[in-house]
Write a structure and sequence with these properties.
Blueprint lengths: L1 H17 L26 E5 L6 E6 L2 E6 L5 E3 L4 E3 L74 E3 L6 E6 L2 E6 L5 E3 L4 E3 L12
Antiparallel strand pairs: 1-2, 2-3, 4-5, 6-7, 7-8, 9-10
Length: 208
């Protein structure tokens, strides 16, 4: 009986050595790699033209590539690195998309209606100088902003304005706030979630 068990053991050992089980080092986790289009390592923000669309531009930050859209009616000026009116932009070989409808490139001005003057027989009012208001010696309260938790409970791809700077914004990616800066001459428009001309943006002076 012992001899039979020994023979079976020897056969199993020979088979296992002849056909070893293959092992794999495959991991379910993927390793992040910077986009080859973007400079890396670098903590600066780089802007490039989109070769396929003159109304878009590419932003690189820390090895990640983001494709941005100019505001409606504007095109990307690769010389000044800013969105501008079509008359000021040379798209060269980049396709220029046709807008959905007519877009005005001239500022709209309105004239104030002329006011009618009427004669009055009332005596002029006597103005008095008001007493000066008391001045406060308290120092203003300075508040600071940290983007560490600005993307908490926000969906991926959400865009949020920087409350301290009209030209900056944040994109939420996996709960992290990725900062972005609008090109020169534009500011972040919260209504269209894009960089836009300053005259189209309602930005308090406290955010500059």
């Amino acid at each position: 009986m012992e001899s039979f068990v020994y023979v079976i053991f020897a056969l199993c050992l020979t088979t296992c050595l002849a056909n070893p089980t293959a092992t794999t080092s495959d991991s379910p986790f993927t390793t992040w790699a910077p986009d080859p289009f973007c400079p890396y390592p670098s903590d600066e923000i780089f802007f490039y033209s989109d070769p396929d669309d003159c109304s878009k531009y590419i932003e690189c930050y820390e090895g990640v590539k983001y494709v941005r859209n100019c505001a409606r009616g504007l095109l990307w000026d690769e010389e000044n690195l800013a969105c501008d009116y079509p008359r000021n932009v040379d798209c060269k070989s980049r396709p220029n998309p046709t807008p959905d409808g007519p877009v005005s490139t001239e500022p709209v001005t309105t004239e104030a209606p002329a006011s009618e003057t009427s004669a009055t027989t009332e005596a002029p009012e006597v103005s008095t100088t008001p007493a000066p208001l008391p001045t406060s010696t308290e120092e203003p309260v300075v508040t600071t902003f940290s983007p560490a938790h600005i993307c908490d409970n926000q969906a991926d791809g959400s865009y949020l304005a920087d409350p301290t700077d009209c030209k900056r914004f944040y994109e939420c990616v996996s709960g992290e706030a990725v900062p972005g800066t609008c090109p020169t001459g534009t500011e972040w428009n919260e209504k269209i979630l894009n960089c836009d001309r300053p005259q189209n943006v309602d930005c308090p002076s406290t955010r500059f």
